[in-house]
Amino acid sequence: DNKTKTILSNLGINAINDAFSTGSTWGSAPGCTVSTISSPVDGQKIADVNMATTACYDKTILKATEAFTTWRGIPAPKRGEIVRQIGLALRAHKDDLGYLVSYEMGKSLQEGRGEVQEMIDICDFAVGLSRQLYGLTMHSERPQHRMYEQYHPLGVVGIISAFNFPVAVWSWNAMLGWVCGDVCVWKPSEKTPLTAIACQHIVQTVFEANSVPEGVSCLVIGDRSIGELMANDTRVPLISATGSTRMGKAVAAAVGARLGKSLLELGGNNAVIISEHADLNIALTGAVFGAVGTAGQRCTTTRRLIIHESIYDAFRQKLVNAYSQLRIGNPLNEHNHVGPLIDHDAVEAYLKSITACKAQGGKFIVEGGVLSGDGYESGCYVRPCIAEVENHYGIVQHETFAPILYLIKYSTLNQAIQLQNGVPQGLSSAIITNHLREAEAFLSASGSDCGIANVNIGTSGAEIGGAFGGEKETGGGRESGSDAWKVYMRRQTNTINYSTSLPLAQGIKFEL
Ligand code: NAD
Q1: For a surface tag, which of 146, 181, 245, 468 has the fewest beta carbons within 10 Å of its beta carbon?
Q2: Does ligand 1 lie within 6 Å of residue 200's CB atom?
Q3: Coil, helix or strand for 210?
Q4: What is the number of the ligand 1 atom nearest to the C-alpha of 222?
Q5: Is 367 a catalytic residue?
Q6: CA–CA separation, 201 vs 205, rounded Å?
Q7: Which among 168, 172, 157, 216 is positioned nearest to 192, based on CA atoms?
Q8: pLDDT in tens, 362-378
Q9: Rounded to two decimals, what is the model's pTM?
Q10: Cβ(186) to ligand 1 under 6 A?
């Protein structure tokens, strides 16, 4: 429609888009294949993109490597000032970019705008950070010596991102990377390249106005083969990769083999413990939003509810009632709660998991299914469903990226914590309780083993101020707030002798 056309043109999206960009230069190369991007919202084609070849990738890395020698010499607060302006540009484009996130990826318009807000927030955070890249000073054991540590820029940061947060995750990495003095090469998900192209255009306007050299912000559109090139490339000292655990294991092996650094943000299998001391209204809203928001396609989506036996039946009934009121449909219509899955493969995976769950003994109390007919033409809309299961079922141990919620009953808090921890992943976790002892036990060393542990908040969503990430098969990486910036820099310890002799450490004597 005309609205979509106007928004695409505002954001620099053409009918056929280039495979790579190093800044003002955009290009493709002989041998690029074309990928057609359609919206899961209505099945309509949005645009074509050229997929980068190895030659496109090499050109990009070369430019990025060159740009680094200039960019690292610009004082960090000056780099922060440029990131401040990116925040302003994002504010100006918030509605358009939020719309495109929603239309290309399928999340609700509110969540699309929320994702752009998260980008704005990380810009603000990064501006402050640009004056706070602090190292420690130490007292030397030797007289007239000074010791301190400093953080230097690392180089090229390769960013591999997933489809479900098509722009925010890149901004978490890029804004911090830039204030730290790094240059960034972004390989977005092949399912959501258009929002990435839009971001590159927005950043480029700011970079041009500030005479930032070509190569500080680079984009390579491609599938996993480009990600593999990056992971194996010694010119890229840090790979920040967000996606499935399968991808993370491949990236970690490739980066590890060359002793590079990787920051991995992988799958979750998040649970909420609902205690007999819970505020059930908080529990219900938190659980339902956590399970069906973004159609169950958040890394922090609530996949398991671990419910105390004394309230189990009553809470189950509340869930069934709430699910019967969910409105599934076009996510651009703010009246709807649940939008589509990303594509038909995701629908297949959802159906397979339901079948597997039934075969393993799961009992569905809210049935799933694929929707068809008016408004559901894309074939990507599915019914959020709920099954009663046991934690050890193979399917429950696995992250299915769809709105399937598993219910598990518990009798003691220790048992609940064991169930919560009893999966291979370790991203987000929560307890709903008004009982101080329970809450503190859940947060203690023998409590949740996840990177994120909440009390009286669901598992889904996070603020940029904290370090984000998880343990075990979630990959161990942390990005966004707190001191996550340190991974984007190399640390150097400096010892300076201003005496007239050369005393050695540990009192060692060596005389010539
Ligand atoms: P995916 O693993 O299929 O793809 C993610 C990215 O990795 C894509 O850009 C893809 O091209 C690339 N890729 C795939 N295989 C690769 C390889 N062998 N080498 C290099 N690159 C490769 O994931 P997806 O379907 O796009 O996203 C969903 C997954 O992402 C879920 O598991 C979700 O939990 C996870 N996720 C995690 C976080 C987090 O912060 N922990 C955030 C968002 C999504």
Answers
A1: 146
A2: no
A3: coil
A4: 11
A5: no
A6: 6
A7: 168
A8: 999 999 999 999 999 99
A9: 0.98
A10: no
